[in-house]
Amino acid sequence: MATPIPSNRARFLLPEVALATSGTITRRGSRSEEPAAGVFSDSRAVVPGSIFVALRGEAHDGHAFVAAAVKKGASIVIVEKGRGLELPEDASVVEVDDTLIAWGGLARAHLTKWRMSSVDGRVVAITGSAGKTTTKELTAALLAEIAPTHFTAGNLNNRIGVPAVIFALEPTHRFCVLEMGMSLPGELDAICDFAKPDVSVVVNVGVAHAEGVGGREGVMKEKGAVYRALDSAGIAIVNADDEYVRRAAREARVRRIETFGRGVGTSRRPGSFAENAMAEPLEHARARPSPLPPSAGGPHYRLVDRAPEGAGSRVVVSCAGRDLTLHLPLPGEAAAIDLTAALAAQEAVSREMLSGASIERALASVRLAGRGAVCTLAGDLLVLDDTYNANPASMRAALATLAELAGPRRKVVVLGEMKELGPLAESEHVALGDAIAEAGVALAIGCGGRIDSALDRAASLGVEVVRCTDTAAAAAAATERAAAGDAVLVKGSRSTGTEAVVSALERRER
């Protein structure tokens, strides 16, 4: 489900709009001397005295809705040159070469204004093949313990969504946490061009969205855009366990680095928790540029130990020299690694260390619908709802989490296919079949498409499988086959709509 575009009050004078968009004012409306407030690309969201940008999408062209936007009160409309539109005379008109570029230009201008009006306003960019949303939510929650923080809502992480998030920035915000996604070559470079970060995080590099960018090497180059966008004072947060992330940082020639991860040979024996060395917040800002290249030594922010605790984990995290014992209300090791990244980002951007109590308070506020949420339904049916999206790395992480949460329960998976893998699609789905079997899954239900390749492989390894033609059929099969006391993982790429399976399980007779 698409995230609604948030409302905003971003203010621009007509000459500022023309400057920000490299556009030409071709008509001055009756309110041309007044500042416009609010920038929108959906005519239904337009408010009186706002700006409407006519974006072209796959299904709709915003130029067809300019008249409707003006009727709702838009005082400035931004359209592409040469469209030959009959425009209402009430609004000022700015013509541009490309409205998508203009949309980003307005975001750049608003972000610049915010940096000037906010008290030390700073931006964190977060990307990765898996876990970027979790890391974004954790980072934002931690920063909110220090000062008002604005952050990406839902899936607004592309060239349309990121500006929409930026427009909602207010002078009262000190921090802005932006999740940045990539599905097309050059997309992250374009986003970073208008959303320059002070701190950049690459959670990991996998083969998600590898189609069209040249496999994992191509994904690495695309994700590296957030590092390339840093200036000499910017800080790169680097996954020390991921060779491709380390390479991306090296190739970007970043000067200041903090590392996170598990680290090789650093784990204590399971269940041995260090004493909680909770440090009080620093009274003065600190900045500690790392002397380490991204491939050397252990991570500065390191997951030392972890044990399951209810629907989450008890973790020991070493934060640049101090050990913290924390309850993380998210299951699985992947979420714990995301926490180390979030702690590194929070300290880098705020230059402050939070106490253990403040960190736990922040973690308790995090909510991740469809991203590893755990619920118990009627009949003691444990459901791991990870329906937001899927790629090879996130599938394996979800299976590991299922195995951990299930304990003695029978393990069931309902899976949709993994999209946008290009030439790797077949081999990655077959490899997923191995992971299904290794996780001890007893029953695997597929939602059709390429997931059948994973089921075929899993079946050859002794897993009972049910092949369905689509998600609706898979939901019916799950409702019929899931038994009291089972643990069920539901996951698939966004377009497969696997949340329908969770809804069907919730509707079962109690």
In short:
With 510 residues, the chain is α/β, with parallel strands linked by helices. The chain has 16 helices and 22 strands. It is globular and about 70 Å long.
What is the topology?
Blueprint: E1 11-12, H1 14-21, E2 24-27, E3 36-37, E4 39-40, E5 51-53, H2 66-71, E6 76-80, E7 92-96, H3 99-117, E8 122-127, H4 132-144, E9 149-151, H5 161-167, E10 175-179, H6 187-194, E11 199-202, H7 215-223, H8 225-228, E12 235-239, H9 243-252, E13 257-261, E14 301-309, E15 312-319, E16 322-328, H10 333-350, H11 356-364, E17 373-377, E18 381-386, H12 392-406, E19 411-415, H13 425-438, E20 443-446, H14 451-460, E21 464-467, H15 471-481, E22 487-491, H16 499-507
Parallel strand pairs: 4-5, 5-6, 6-7, 8-10, 8-11, 9-10, 11-12, 12-13, 13-14, 18-22, 19-20, 19-22, 20-21
Antiparallel strand pairs: 1-3, 2-7, 14-15, 15-16, 17-18
Helix pairs in contact: 1-3, 3-5, 3-6, 4-10, 4-11, 7-9, 12-13, 13-14, 15-16
